[in-house]
Amino acid sequence: MATYSRLPGSVALITLQNPPVNALSAAVRQGIVDTVQRALKDPKVTSVVICGQNGKFCGGADIREFAGPMLGPPLVPMIHAIEAVDKPVAAAIEGVALGGGLELALGCHYRIAHSKALLGLPEVTLGLLPGAGGSQRLPRLIGLTAALDLITTGRQHDSSFFSSLHLLCVCSQSISSVCVSGQSLDSRRLSTLPCPCPPDVDSLLDKTMVKVRQRSRGALAPVACVQALMAAASLPYTQGMEKERDLLTTLFNSGQARALQYAFFSQRVVGKWSLPSGASWDNSAARTISKAAVIGLGTMGRGIVVALALTGISVVAVETQEKQLAEASQVVPAMLQREAGRRSLATPPGVISFSSNLQDVCEVELVIEAVFEDMSLKLQVFRHLTSVCRPGTLLCSNTSGLDIDRLAAVTQSPGLVVGMHFFAPAHVMKLLEVVYGPRSSPEAVATAMQLGKRMGKVSVAVGNCPGFVGNRMLKPYLEQANFLLEEGATPQQVDEVLEEFGFPMGVFRMSDLSGLDVGWRIRKEAGLTGPGVESTRTRQGRRYSPLPDQVCEAGRLGQKTGRGWYQYDGPGGRVARSDHWVNIFLEAYRAEHGLVARSIAPEEILERCLYALINEGFNILQDAMAAGPEDIDAIYVFGYGWPRHHGGPMFHAGQVGLGRILERLQHHHHNHPDVPHLKPSTLLRRLVAVGSPPVQKWREFINKERVHSQL
Ligand SMILES: CC/C=C\C/C=C/C(=O)SCCNC(=O)CCNC(=O)[C@H](O)C(C)(C)COP(=O)(O)OP(=O)(O)OC[C@H]1O[C@@H](n2cnc3c(N)ncnc32)[C@H](O)[C@@H]1OP(=O)(O)O
């Protein structure tokens, strides 16, 4: 709703009220319409100020309402009516003015903002465009060039940025009342102004369109934003608004907008974690960490040190190898400075001390072990930590898939052990998997989750199983990609299909980037390859492709060696080029194993890679290793490059149709009965049997089925 009050004198104050961010729900829109009418009718009122309750102007249209029928007064005529009134209307902006909130402010005649306010048009991140007149008013106010950047990226800025664009005035006091004097409003109605364009407007629009298409990887909204701005630059306001409306309708009806809005909410749902034990975010107290240690200063350890220091935590960075320590003590401060600069922090808040002595962690409250991915080494470190740390210290491991419970078992307080699985580079990547073992205490999980949040991560609580959630699902995906090579595909063919779907990198380019030896080592530890293991295509009772092992045996470990599935311009090179060696190698391999190459359609490549991964997602939900589909989807969007406009693997399954996924998995499993990952999961079958409920209902269904022991 919106409340009305008269300030002393002649100013009417309209306050938007819809906690927590005063989103423009039907009730708020109705409130605005009613209160503006009231102000117009009151002869004593000469000007109107619109503000938001609790120090927040407005977080935009109410995203929750997008899923239902349109109720209440629509935004576009409401804003237009405000712009048209003959008493001056000012938007007094504190906190946030985002999306429809900023569009409302653009319909007002004046805008004044607190110096700490945050403004922007993030609709593009929700698969939409600023469809309440924002795509037409903003360029008329700040010019086409600046509007293109803001609207196609959805970037948010503080008020000093917008005041430099003459969008508003800034004040540093709390905004309680604003007086607007009685000048002519003609020039204050943005819809009546021409759109300032640079002389080379066509070339600017063409270049922007090319850039946006490249960047958007198949997302529709950024392209529609450019089209709306083309209309603003070339058409009168009314026709521009028609174009805006048409584009918005197309976007609204696209699956992409639904996927992106789902992704917005899943990012928030995962913060409200719960464990099978009943412990959850709202019944578990977290400790506030001010001093931490990181053990092992390889690539991951260095990134973790920087991520911690950026939050203001003092870090003891320990590395027992002198050469590695010397290198890290040079590199890490530079990384910290760079990242602090990127985040516009004047000085990095945390203090880092380097040491080669494990004893130096004795005073910290939390330790993150980030040594080489080797269980015996990690066990050794944990045994040592439990003897040198103060009782009550939280011990965390950055393992990407090893058993947290085994690590906990060698410590004096297994309840204080959790996994904190970061993704490289750890100070940049948004995802953190917080892994709870059967003995991890709610306090340890809550502390790791909160620490992740402080570091700006999307933290997801996951159960302890090989590979946890992300890497466990990656395994069948990689496996299918290798099988496709055996059957006749090339790395480029597979990668092109996945990149066309929207991944920033196909599976083979990604593997080259991460280093092919990572998986090789894991397979050796699992006894799948290595000395003494027979080179067959069936291992441990199931189909196995020795292809990636043989590529490693040839000394091709990916980008770092300049060769892998592709060739690069020397070690560390980044541009992947197809390599004749790989084609010859694949032909020889197929001949050796009596395989006849066939032509494989892009649909089969996509289905086998994605549906194998999705099927494992269902198995994970069934095993209660993730609390709900949103957890899996957030992990894939934030950690594995799953295109956000496809929502995440589980959301995508729902969009494709669960019946269709089941039918295609059955088909592929029938053709490849020796691949257990293609056997449809029981949960998928159960969901199809009850009529394929929407993804938002799965959590409830799973919990019910578990109670009745159907899963
Ligand atoms: C029909 C017209 C079509 C087009 C024109 C207009 C379109 C739009 O305006 S689309 C919406 C544009 N606005 C946004 O994209 C802003 C989204 N919100 C945010 O970025 C952030 O929430 C925030 C910066 C406003 C606040 O951040 P923070 O303080 O970190 O809190 P949370 O993100 O955890 O949010 C708290 C709480 O509020 C819910 N919420 C936030 N924004 C909206 C919204 N616009 N509509 C509905 N709900 C919103 C959010 O989900 C959280 O809810 P829970 O506590 O239940 O999780």
Automatic annotation (TrEMBL):
Main location per the UniProt record: other
Catalytic activity: (3Z)-hexenoyl-CoA = (2E)-hexenoyl-CoA; (3E,5Z)-tetradecadienoyl-CoA = (2E,5Z)-tetradecadienoyl-CoA; (3S)-hydroxyhexadecanoyl-CoA = (2E)-hexadecenoyl-CoA + H2O; (3S)-hydroxyhexadecanoyl-CoA + NAD(+) = 3-oxohexadecanoyl-CoA + NADH + H(+)
Span of domain 3-hydroxyacyl-CoA dehydrogenase C-terminal: 467-568, 605-701
Keyword Isomerase appears in the UniProt entry: yes
Localization of this protein: Peroxisome
Keyword NAD recorded: yes
Keyword tags: Fatty acid metabolism, Isomerase, Lipid metabolism, Lyase, Multifunctional enzyme, NAD, Oxidoreductase, Peroxisome
Gene Ontology MF annotations: (3S)-3-hydroxyacyl-CoA dehydrogenase (NAD+) activity; delta(3)-delta(2)-enoyl-CoA isomerase activity; enoyl-CoA hydratase activity; NAD+ binding
PANTHER family, per database record: 3-HYDROXYACYL-COA DEHYROGENASE, PEROXISOMAL BIFUNCTIONAL ENZYME
Family: In the N-terminal section; belongs to the enoyl-CoA hydratase/isomerase family. In the C-terminal section; belongs to the 3-hydroxyacyl-CoA dehydrogenase family.
Name of the molecule in the record: Peroxisomal bifunctional enzyme
Species this chain originates from: Oncorhynchus tshawytscha (Chinook salmon)
Gene responsible for this protein: EHHADH
